[in-house]
Design brief:
This is Ribosomal RNA small subunit methyltransferase H. It catalyses: cytidine(1402) in 16S rRNA + S-adenosyl-L-methionine = N(4)-methylcytidine(1402) in 16S rRNA + S-adenosyl-L-homocysteine + H(+). Its EC number is 2.1.1.199. By secondary structure, the protein is of the alpha/beta class. It is built from 15 helices and seven strands. A seven-stranded mixed β-sheet has the order 3-2-1-4-5-7-6, with helices on both faces. The protein is globular. The chain binds S-adenosylmethionine. The site of S-adenosylmethionine has 22 residues, from helix 2, strand 2 and helix 12.
């Protein structure tokens, strides 16, 4: 394996390690899944920090897997590397014989290996064949998308996945051009997009082709469909105390992540009942307050981190959580009763200073109230 093209600094590495540590450091063997192995930067740090942890690393890009295999060679006896799309995680874990796992990381999007490769067509700044497949062994290329999609489909891809205001104009320009000659190169596409955007708008919001390239990449790799299936499946495979960390790089990924977590952290019982019914309580608690952003120092050192949003959650034991909430509710009622007229107490500060499960200062109470 030759030298890597470009460099890759794992994004929010220290924060990811901090969040995963309680789940991976529980004595004995634990299992961590890196669902987007890439060049193995996060995975290497996890393996270094947790000598008892087994890693299951997935990537749909065979080239990334080959690089990660070299990088992680010294941990080979506790590493499984799999060529798979992350929505295939349940099948991979079944095949390897891991019914439950303790840590899962999704570091979404493209790697610097893919972005910097002159021959893969991800980057608008380099001329290359319009491919953009993360898995070059299967699927349609960006060239096929731009040369075959009808105007409404092309415009929808650019508007929805690229949040591109000028989606209709760009789609029209693409269709006009392909009637003249097939569009085969990233440089030609970037030029077409630039020409289709009104001149004043070209000067704002980065390179004019950035949003179109992002949209095509998402479409070619069916990124959002895979993520929508993969997140619930990943949450289902976490052991109690297990933790999931997701790094998203655009709002659509972050919205899917937020929705998948919201579904698990809320009670499904009737809202007017003071206690949880068995089986209706939350199965996860949030570890991040809303979406965490990178610090200025990290962004300065690693421009790829600029758009990152981190969300994390831990699987909880619903029965223990139900008991804790019931205890807390009983305690609240007792305190309330003490303050009622005629109960002999005026709340003069002589009441209990703490009680089991009183909920004071629990971290989950302060977390994630944007849901
Ligand atoms: C941002 S990079 C990961 C970098 C990695 N954390 C590191 O430290 O080197 C994202 C990786 O996820 C892979 N990937 C993206 N979507 C995927 C999917 N649906 N299934 C499997 N791998 C995917 C890409 O091929 C890429 O290598």
């Amino acid at each position: 394996m030759g030298e890597l093209r470009g460099t890759h600094v794992p994004v929010l590495l220290e924060r990811c390690l901090e969040l995963l540590a309680p789940a991976l450091d529980r004595g004995g063997r634990t299992v961590h899944v890196d669902a987007t192995l890439g060049l193995g930067g996060h995975a290497e740090a996890v393996l270094q920090a947790h000598p008892e942890t087994v890693l299951v690393g997935l990537d749909r890009d065979t080239e990334a897997l080959a690089h990660a295999r070299v990088r992680l060679a010294r941990f080979a006896d506790r590493v499984h590397l799999e060529h798979a799309v992350y929505d295939e995680l349940p099948e991979v874990l079944d095949r390897l014989g891991y019914p439950g796992v303790d840590g899962i990381l999704f570091d979404l999007g493209v790697s610097s290996l893919q972005l910097d490769a002159p021959d893969r067509g991800f980057a608008y700044a380099q001329d290359a064949p319009l491919d953009m497949r993360m898995d070059q062994t299967r699927g349609v290329t960006a060239e096929e998308v731009v040369n075959t999609y009808a105007h409404p489909d092309l415009a929808r891809v650019l508007r929805v996945y690229g949040e591109e205001k000028f989606a209709g104009r760009i789609a029209s320009a693409i269709i006009r051009e392909r009637e003249r000659a097939r569009i085969t190169s990233s440089a030609r596409l970037a030029e077409l997009v630039r020409e289709a955007i009104p001149a004043p708008a070209r000067r704002t919001g980065g390179h004019p082709a950035k949003r179109t390239f992002q949209a095509l990449r998402i479409e070619v790799n069916r990124e959002l469909a895979a993520l929508e299936t993969a997140l619930p499946a990943a949450l289902d495979r976490l052991n109690v105390g297990g933790r999931l960390v997701v790094l998203s790089y655009h709002s659509l990924e972050d919205r899917l992540t937020k929705a998948a977590l919201a579904d698990r952290v809320r009670s499904k019982g009737p809202i007017d009942l003071p206690v949880e019914l068995p089986g209706s309580g939350p199965t996860f608690r949030l570890l991040s307050r809303g979406a965490e952003l990178p610090g200025e120092v990290e962004v300065a050192a690693n421009p790829r981190a600029a758009s990152v949003r981190l969300r994390a959650a831990e699987r909880i034991d619903p029965d223990a959580e139900r008991q804790r909430r019931t205890d807390r509710e009983r305690y609240r009622r007792r305190v309330k009763a003490m303050h009622q007229p005629g109960t002999g107490s005026t709340g003069s500060g002589t009441g209990p200073r703490s009680a089991p499960g009183d909920g004071t200062g629990t971290d989950e109470e302060g977390e994630g109230h944007d849901y």
